Amino acid sequence: MMNLYQLELFAAVVANGNLTRTAESLHLSQPALTSRIRALEESLGEPLFEQVGRRMCLTEAGRELYDHAELILREVAEAKRAVAEVRALERGSLRLVATTTVGTYVLPRILGTFHRAHPGVTLQLDVTNEVRSIEAIRRHSADLAVLGPVEESEDVVVEDFMPNVLFFAATPDHPLAHQSQITLAELVRHAILVREEGSGTRAVLTRIFAEHDLKPTIAMELRHSAAIKQGIIAGLGLGLLSVHETEVERRSGALVALEIDGLQINHDWHIMHLRRQRLSHVSAAFKELLLSYAAQYGGKPQRSPSLGMARAV
Ligand code: PGA
After folding, report:
1. Which atom of ligand 1 is closest in space to residue 164's alpha carbon?
2. pLDDT tens digits for 110-139?
3. Hey, which of 96, 97, 99, 205 would you mutate to test ligand 1's pocket, going by the most ligand atoms within 8 Å of its Cβ?
4. Is domain 4-87 classified as CATH 1.10.10.10?
5. 169 strand-pairing partners
6. What's this model's pTM, rounded to 2 decimal places?
7. How far is the CA of 103 from the centre of ligand 1 (A)?
8. Residue 22 pLDDT > 70, yes or no?
9. Is the CB of 104 under 6 A from ligand 1?
10. Where does 92-163+268-298 sit in CATH, by number?
11. How far is the CA of 33 from the centre of ligand 1 (A)?
12. Which of 59, 98, 107, 268 has the most CB atoms within 10 Å of its CB?
């Protein structure tokens, strides 16, 4: 009778493409591994591998078995995970993905609180842009995403997290720094630092100028909001930043918020996960913590901090 252990060994040989490496990685002798694979072939009545030159290749039966083995082993891993999680969050893992500002300036603090309460849970945070965060959720490579405003759809659920406001930032010696009521037409005459395509901040910036039929003067593309901030401070140009990213710099006067004619840019953060997948105990507990943090911070996203608050004095 074929058993799970044989399937695991078979899948490992296929993944490694080599018996010696597989035997080593599983701390088995090569003859022991070979005899277990033989036993699997015998129980199925079909050879699973064939030698092509010096390479070991799957036979047609082998390919068929591998497709099923992958599914079975994934299911078994799911079952083990579900059982382990029942143990009151003593074990388990949480794979988070977040966009740059919230991932860098907000989530680590909340992860710290979670880790102190559940030290046995393995935490992982991938900090990337909006498009990649959504992809990670759809590909199953993250359990929860924290990101800017996104549409809910058939496959994903999106919930409010916390308010976020973006503003155009400059150094205090920039020609626009002490001007009030700057127009967007004036703004485009100055060099601007932008994020890469796929960034939520980049999409906002593009939309603002497109709505006014204006083209920004792009000085440089930088792939992280922290790099944009440091670029502005280094005098490379203006840039669009979050109030959460700049608390220290606004207080110290290293950065000022430009007052653009009637422009208030709300870019509230949200929590996203797959609709069809039941949230694990760990994910559900972390989501609760996020929401209680947001409640302490200042309630619903609609009550965003105003752009005025962003201005350095
Ligand atoms: P972004 O989002 O990295 O996709 O531009 C920034 C943020 O608000 O975290």
Report:
1. 8
2. 999 999 999 989 999 999 999 999 999 999
3. 99
4. yes
5. 239, 257
6. 0.70
7. 8
8. yes
9. no
10. 3.40.190.10
11. 49
12. 98
